[in-house]
Amino acid sequence: MYQFQYFRPKSLDEARKLFEGNDEAKFLAGGQTLLPTLKQRLAQPSALIDLAAIPGFSGVKAAGGTVTIGAGTKHFDVASSPDVQKAIPALAHLAAHIGDPAVRHMGTLGGSIANNDPAADYPAAVLGLGATINTTSRAITADDFFTGMFETALKDGEIVTEVTFPVPEKAAYMKFPNPASRYAMVGVFVAKTKDGVRVAVTGASPCVFRQKEMEAALAKSFTPDAIAGIKVAPGDMNSDLHGTAEYRAHLVTVMAKRAVAAANA
User: Which pLDDT does position 2 carry in this prediction?
Assistant: First the structure.
């Protein structure tokens, strides 16, 4: 490791001021991506601003057909929340299968979506449910939030405070995990809502995306057979030692069919 300043603010206002007062500072949420990056010297911020001690930064609230989850809420707490399990069981299932127990007890919702790792699970739920990401300065729709590989609509110094998920009629998440990291080689979140069907895919491409052809087919018939014949083009898919672009393209349809079946179960 190398020398850097460490701050543990007690409020969001203090966190913002610390960020503005330190060049090349970074916010620390769960640290499941940032800390390994620091150890490998792939990032060398001048200061770390730990958000863990900010009051009211975590927790789950269910009301009015929505579930709102604080950005600092750990994956384990989302998975074990009675409110999430009752209102959006697919979201609880997703959180319960992120990484391993150590990751689930440290990683946070806000940290995951702000980092926007191409193989992270939460972006699929946020996009698949059409959630709203609330920050220290505004509300951002899921369709506008994820902009590219490790990129989001967040501006410098802007902090995710909570995410509001509409409660769907039906939903499910299925992924084909890397056997070592448990990251999604391909993960598909399917949701049937009062406004239509949404299908979000993570792990397959540089950034989470919606599969519009499947959405249109499922809007007519919300069954696995409705999308069985849809072939996903491999052109923009990730390709690495774990799987080719063609393999991931095939998995998108496989996981989507499984997700629809699970949602209907």
Answer: 73
SS3 141: strand
Phi-psi region of 118 (alpha: psi -120 to 50; beta: other; left: phi over 0): alpha
Q: pLDDT tens digit string along 40-86? A: 888 889 999 999 999 999 999 999 999 999 999 999 999 999 999 99
Token pair of 127 as six digits: 């996009």
Residue 180 has a pLDDT of 87
Residue pair 67/167 in contact by the 8 Å Cβ criterion:
yes
CB atoms within 10 A of CB 153: 14
Per-residue CA distances from 112 to 3, 71, 79, 84, 148 (Å): 25, 9, 15, 18, 14
Reported CATH class of domain 5-49 = alpha beta
Task: Take residue 20 and report the two structure tokens written for it.
Answer: 């503005």
Strand partners, 210: 200
C-alpha span between 199 and 172 (Å, rounded): 10
Is the domain spanning 60-264 CATH 1.10.3720.10? The answer is no
- Write down the pLDDT at residue 54: 94
DSSP 8-state code for residue 142? H
Give the residue ranges of the chain where pLDDT is below 50. none
Would the CA dihedral through 218, 220, 223, 224 be positive or negative? Answer: negative
Separation CA 261–CA 259 (nearest Å)? 5
CA 252 to mean position of chain CA atoms: 17
Beta-carbon-side half-sphere exposure of residue 104 (alpha carbons within 13 Å): 19
Spell out the domain ranges in the chain: 5-49, 60-264
